[in-house]
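Input record (Table S2, row 389):
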Amino acid sequence: MDRIYMDHAATTPLDERVLEDMMPFLKENFGNPSSAHFFGREVRKALEKAREKMASLLGATPEEIYFTSGGTEADNLAIIGSARALRNRGNHIITTSVEHHAVLDTCLALKEEGFEVTVLPVDQYGMVDPNDVREAIQENTILLSVMYANNEVGTIQPVEEIGKIARENNILFHIDAVQSVGNLPVNVEKLSVDLLALSAHKFYGPKGVGLLFIKEGTGINHLTHGGGQERGKRAGTENIPGIIGMAKAMELAYSELEEFVPRMEALRDRLIHGCLEMEEVKLNGHPSQRLPGNVNVSFEYIEGEALLLSLDFKGVAASSGSACSSGSMNPSHVLLAAGMSEQTARGAIRLSLGRHNSMEEVDYVLQVIKESVDKLRSMSSIYQGKGER
Ligand SMILES: *Cc1c(COP(=O)(O)O)cnc(C)c1O
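Output record (pyridoxal-5'-phosphate complex):
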């Protein structure tokens, strides 16, 4: 069988239809949108059309959309930009222990500037309790940052409820929604959110482009100094082919959501059940409130890294969870936050499904996992000895 890709939470392949829309802007339409001549004007028109399209899909106005180099930059701009802007009102930020490093490390970096950061705990499924959010709010709280869905374990957070709490307390609410577009309905009105970060390469768009929704009236400081692009919020010539591609990718993600979700859920559930039929396996993340394509399981008595190597050797691409921690031997901060022992966390692997995966692939992958797990356990003295204790 050909190589199988089950790491869509890390990145997705570029959709052919997206590439097609991008091509003219990689070739003849090369103008700088800030140029006044017709090369520039043509591209400016396309840029603003893309902005309008994405704004309308998200339930925002075009003036509320700011393009960035991806999810990481959008998260940084949202958090640092708003924290600095609100410094005279307060210095307390609330986030959660299961955030992507783009959020968690950004909040922690702000500590050096004198900000106080509360990192909320999660339950065994990696879910935040809105009551904990409420209790963490102080007089000086200015910002709350919670992800929509977790990239490692797939748990979907109760962001609507959390958004209401933020609004009641007059605190800015930022959502890292990078894993959501294409998997969940994303509408900024419904989410009562002030700041929302997206990245195109997580929904079959190109890499190196993302956006930050900034609700009208939300004053945030810019981080890059230079030209006045993006209404002064993000200096630097816009990634035009990327933005054009992101607009097409988002349009497709929204129009195909209804077809995509049940198809992914069927693959996901088969994969989960197949894994759980093996011995000493645990499902990580929420049993029902989870991303349609996310499978994260821990196999006791083996190293997830060893299992991944074995899968890789057999042509199956999966992950240990966060791209940042792969290669290093540190267990996932998300699994540890969910109360898992280091030992069990080290036995975790993530399989994230996408558009091109099939039931045949799922069945093949299950067979490969079973063979690999059996082999690794046969070499594990702890596993061999466990019956004798
Ligand atoms: C991938 C990811 C990011 C980072 O996005 P980039 O565009 O790769 O910088 C941030 N948050 C989450 C939840 C992600 O999955």
